[in-house]
Design brief:
about 70 residues; alpha+beta; Multidrug-efflux Transporter Regulator, Chain: A, Domain 2; two-stranded antiparallel sheet; 3 helices; globular
């Protein structure tokens, strides 16, 4: 269940974010480490902004295997 944070609106856990965009939680955490996503920490729990996740997936180039 998404959490509402004053000043940020809705935030998601990496697991929730991953489910929304067809990725695995480890990918969401890696994107946070790489600085591609804003990570919000509350009581030792990590959250991300859903709009940032959607935008990153939308612009992320996909590789196509050569035949």
């Amino acid at each position: 269940m998404p959490l509402e944070i004053h000043g940020h609106g809705e935030v998601l856990t990496p697991k929730e974010a991953a489910a929304r965009v067809g990725q695995v939680p480890a990918t969401i955490r890696r994107w946070c480490r790489e600085g591609k996503l804003t990570e919000i920490s509350i009581a030792n729990k990590k959250y991300v902004l859903p709009d940032e996740v959607a935008e990153l997936v939308k612009v992320k180039p996909r590789t196509v295997a050569a035949e």
